[in-house]
Amino acid sequence: MSEIKITANARESFGKGAARKLRAAGQTPAVIYGHGNATRHISLPAHEIALALRHKNALLELTVAGKTELVLVKSAAKDPVTQIIEHIDLVEVKKGEKVHVEVPVHVIGEPMGGTIVDVEHKTVKLEAEATHIPEFVELHISKENAAGHHYLASDIVLPKGVSMDLAADELVASVVETKAGAASEETAGAAAEAAAE
Q1: Contact call for residues 101 and 163 (beta carbons, < 8 A)
Q2: Residue 177 CB-half CA count within 13 A
Q3: Neighbour order of strands in the sheet with 150-152
Q4: Listed residues 93, 125, 144: the one ending a domain
Q5: What is the CATH number of the domain that holds 67?
Q6: From the centroid of its chain, how far is CA 111?
Q7: CA distance 97 to 99
Q8: Which domain holds residue 170?
Q9: Which pTM value belongs to this model?
C-alpha cells in the first residue's frame, strides 16, 4: 500500500480542553513515538485522517514544520457514541524497516457442496517492510477437499518479503459438514438401501 500524504501541525497545548478545541476546529490530536526521538504532539486534519484510517495498517507520510517522515498508525481512540476519532498514536518508521502488523485472512474459492469453511484465524500477525505491508493475505480453498480437511498456516499465500508469526503447522481453517449436507447424505443412504431391497 502506498503512503497517504498528510500535513500535520505541531501542538503546544495539552489536556482535555485543548483536545476538545482542536476537534471542534476539525483537527485530531495525535502523538508520534519511536526511534529514540522525543515524543512529539501533533494535530491532523480530522477528515483526511478518518479517510486514511479506513485502511488497516495505514502508512502515513506526514509533513510537520516542513519536515517529512513516515509513520504507522498504532492505535486510534474513538468516541463510543459519535464514532469521532478522539486521539491517534503513531509510530515512526523508516523505509526498509521491518514492522509487525496484523492483517485479515481472505478465503478464496468455494468449499465442497454440503460443507463450510470454519476459519480459526480471521487475522494473522506478519513481519513486513513498513512500505510493503499487504492489506490482506489469501487462503485458497478447493471443492476437492471434503469435510474434515484442515488448512494450515503454510497454506496461506504470502507476498514476497513477508513472514508470518504463526508456526507452519498451525490450524488456520477446517472444512466442516453442514446439517443440510449431513441430511442429504442420510437421505441418499436411505434411498440406496431402499433400492437394494
Answers
A1: no
A2: 11
A3: 115-119, 171-177, 150-152
A4: 93
A5: 2.40.240.10
A6: 24
A7: 6
A8: 100-196
A9: 0.68
Tell me how far apart the alpha carbons of residues 85 and 82 are, in angstroms, rounded to a whole number.
Answer: 9
Distance CA 63, CA 89 (A): 16
SS3 111: coil
The domain that holds 123 is classified in CATH as 2.170.120.20
C-alpha cell of residue 109? 474459492
Residue that is last in its domain, among 93, 122, 152: 93
Give the other-Cβ count within 10 Å of 167's Cβ.
10
Neighbours of 34 (CB within 10 A): 17
Burial (CB < 10 A; 0-12, 13-18, 19+), residue 80, is: exposed
pLDDT tens, position by position, 126-160: 998 888 888 899 999 888 888 888 999 899 888 88
Residues 88 and 104 in one domain: no
What total number of domains does the chain contain?
A: 2
In this structure, are 11 and 42 located in the same domain? Answer: yes
In the chain, which residue ranges form alpha helices assigned H by DSSP? 16-24, 46-52, 179-196
